[in-house]
Amino acid sequence: MIDMIEKEDPVISEEEAAQYDRQIRLWGLDAQKRLRGSRVLLAGLGGLGAEVAKNLILAGVKALTLLDHEQVTEESCRAQFLVPVTAQGQNRAQASLERGQNLNPMVEVHADPDRIEDKPDDFFLQFDAVCLTGCSRDLMVRVDQLCSKHNIKVFCGDVYGYYGYTFSSLSLFREKLKVVKPTGNSNDGPEAKKAKVDPNETTMVKKMASFCTLKEALEVDWSTEKAKAGMKRTPVDYFMLHVLLKFRTDKGRDPDPQSFPEDSELLRQIRDDVLEALAVSSDLLNEDFISYCFSEMSPVCAVVGGVLGQEVVKALSQRDAPHRNFFFFDGRKGNGVVDYFGPN
Questions:
Q1: Residues 45, 136: contact at Cβ < 8 Å?
Q2: Nearest-angstrom CA–CA distance, 143 and 341
Q3: Which of 43, 90, 279, 280 is the most buried (most CB within 10 A)?
């Protein structure tokens, strides 16, 4: 752990103070200042991406870049509230720009219609945080490995029907109020030995911690005794994520309701192949999940997008520790599970 002491100038404009009054009361002026100074990249403007965009814009980051090369479809309009119904055929990022900007004129919202796969490494280095939705496993691993070398926070997330997940990969500082040593000598009694906090002292003491990377989290060797011991606490959603990411890699898309019979059969085959490759029991993941992992469902996007957006805010504001490091949501049960992978 690395200790840091930092003092920050609490200057903020009257207009910003009025706009973010509730948030400043909730998490403090310094946290809001850090949010205001943060630039975020959000890749993927599906239903989940729209929820995350809304939450980050309302929170008051400095700038948000919406990156998506896909076009607006009828399904996009059902799951994504930032695009108007008249925007079918337009680029999703550009179609989301106007409504996104209207949420908070103080945030710089930009639209980028390029493919994220075509972006050079330098593109990602201009941001303080990168949030990836709807991306392939290889791309997420590539961006995560790049950003981790430059202390850029990375978040991943997706929604598949009733299911959703988020993942955090970052190094962060968590701050605490400086504790002032008690005055007086040791004969003053027990009360004098208790540490007291000076209410007029704004100095913070920070602790640094690093999460494991996405590559480490997805490449757990389940044949080891240590991994087997942790199997009982590992949610089945983790293995389902492997299956769905493999489907996306193989097909270049997610399961489509319009090809339900074919995609269902492919999911069964991928499930068997993935579980065998991971050296875990074929009974671990029941095939019932197949009926519930098609399309983005708006209520699930709202829940997972709320969690993912809040995790980004936590990391950028440095006030509260984010989830370490997976969050899985099952809309059939209406609950979420946080799980940790990796050596850090």
A1: no
A2: 19
A3: 43
